[in-house]
Amino acid sequence: MTRKLFAKLLGLFILLLAFHTVVMVLVFRGMMERTQVEALHRLAWDALWSGLIALVLALPIAAWASVRVVQRLHRVTNFARRIASGDLHARLPRSGGDELSEMEDALNQTAERLGQSFTEIENRRQELAAMLDSMQEAVVAVTAEAQVRWSNAVMRQMAGTEIRAGRPLAHSVRDPDLLACIRGALDSGEVHSGTARSLAPGRIFEVNAAPLPSGGALAVLHDVTRIEAAERTRRDFIANVSHELRTPLTSIQGYVETLLDDPAPNANTTREFLGIIQRSARRMNRLTEDLLTLAGVESPDYKLVRLPQRASALVQDAMDSLGGIVADAGLELESAGSPDELVLADSDAVNQVFGNLIENAIKYGSAGGRIRISARALDDAVEFCVQDFGPGIASEHLGRIFERFYRVDKARSRQSGGTGLGLAIVRHIVQAHGGRVRAESELGSGASFCFTLPLAEAAST
User: Fold this and answer.
1) Shortest CA distance to 352 belongs to which of 281, 400, 407, 290?
2) Contact between residue 450 and residue 440 where contact means Cβ atoms under 8 Å apart
3) Can you point out the beta strands (E) in 212-306?
4) How far apart are CA 46 and CA 141, in angstroms?
5) Burial class (CB within 10 angstroms; exposed 0-12, middle 13-18, buried 19+) of 422
6) Considering the domain 135-223 in this protein, what is its CATH number?
7) How far apart are CA 418 and CA 401, in angstroms?
8) Cα within 13 Å of Cα(295), Cβ side
9) For residues 47 and 40, what is the distance between their CA atoms, to the nearest angstrom?
10) How would CATH label the architecture of 307-460?
11) Predicted confidence pLDDT, tens digits, the chain (461 residues)
């Protein structure tokens, strides 16, 4: 740039010098025609005037050239400021073929590459944000001062609108275990794990906080509520099964040892003890069978052979196959009518449902003297009910009565030989059919256990 500008100015002054030389030649010729003194004075004045004329002509040209260069440099400066402020679409207009134009082209290329780089970075940032927002886990990143740097949608949903970038995490999240994990990762520079139980009501989160290379920390919260619930259910199930098996085993062991230790056992006593042992063995066998049945219906491999069946035929089948059991218990089994709609059902599985519900009614509703089976058509299903007229069930038990090993009256249930699994089996079989099960009762007015089976037409559509 300097060489070309200097060459232009040098050329300008050469032109001015040539002009001055021509003037001097003309003056010198005129001088030859005058006297010597007059020629010297005339030469001096002509030289002075020619220099002044050359200076007057050079000044505006030099000023114009310098102003133009300054304007172009100002455009370059403004361009640099726009780029620095984030306007990567700024460009310099091409204004010539000198070094300044080459610099303008280089700056335009640099701005274009910066724009492409920033666009690519922004696209990747948006992709990463979308990926993190689609995660089921809550994610939050904090600075070295424990201020929120970024959080995904799940974390914002849990923490509410209070969690914002630049705000201390402790102002938005009150769970001490989560804050302790993040603080540990910030202080030690190592991964810290923990369990957050007070971040959201009724939910448990496994927290893993790791330091970030640029400073700060990243915490990932995995919802383990269902896992904890399943683990708790497993522990309760094992404890209940152990308890249910221990009682008859203890009884069997005690009576057998008594018989073995008696050198001359009484026949009546022996018969009584053997009867107790037999009842305990039957109870263990019944518990084992129910456990196997429950394991089967809970298994993912449990398959039903669902075929169109008339609701009235299912009720009549239950009446025929279970009527003898009810009669042996001294009760009356009656039908309150049923529709002829076709339902999609496995007849053997539905008969098992009726069997469990009727056995439950015999155990706990025998005081009513009768058991009623009914069915009614709904919009997209048929609802079947088994009703007893016994003492009924308190309302606080109705929500849990279909849980495994849940008993309203534990002493009475064990005395009657119940395992606490019958209603749980009913629930799983009905749900496998795509139906619903519920219990209704009022103290002193008996209890009704109802389940639905989908209509064959509704299931096919």
Assistant:
1) 290
2) yes
3) 217-223
4) 84
5) buried
6) 3.30.450.20
7) 13
8) 9
9) 10
10) 2-Layer Sandwich (3.30)
11) 444 554 565 566 666 656 666 666 565 555 555 555 565 566 656 666 766 676 666 667 666 766 676 677 777 777 777 777 777 777 777 666 666 677 777 777 777 788 777 777 776 766 666 665 666 788 888 888 888 888 887 787 777 666 777 788 888 788 888 888 988 988 888 888 888 888 777 888 888 899 988 788 988 888 888 888 777 777 777 777 777 778 788 888 888 888 888 877 788 888 888 888 888 888 888 778 877 877 787 777 778 888 999 999 999 998 988 888 888 888 888 888 888 899 999 988 999 999 989 988 888 777 778 899 999 999 889 999 999 888 888 888 888 888 877 776 655 555 555 667 888 889 999 999 999 999 988 887 888 999 999 998 755 55
Nearest to 213 by CA among 232, 189, 193: 189
In order of 90, 331, 410, the CA distances from 101 in angstroms are 16, 108, 96
In this structure, what token pair is assigned to residue 285?
A: 């066998």
- Half-sphere exposure (Cβ direction) of 75: Cα atoms closer than 13 Å: 18
- The CATH code belonging to domain 232-298 is 1.10.287.130
Model-level pTM? 0.54
Q: What residue segments make up the domains of the chain, in order of their start?
A: 1-122, 135-223, 232-298, 307-460
> What distance separates the 2 farthest-apart alpha carbons in the chain?
179
Q: What are phi and psi of 30, to 5 degrees?
A: -65, -30
Residue 174, helix vs strand vs coil: coil
CA atoms within 13 A on the CB side of 36: 0
Q: Which residue has the tokens 């007057």?
A: 56
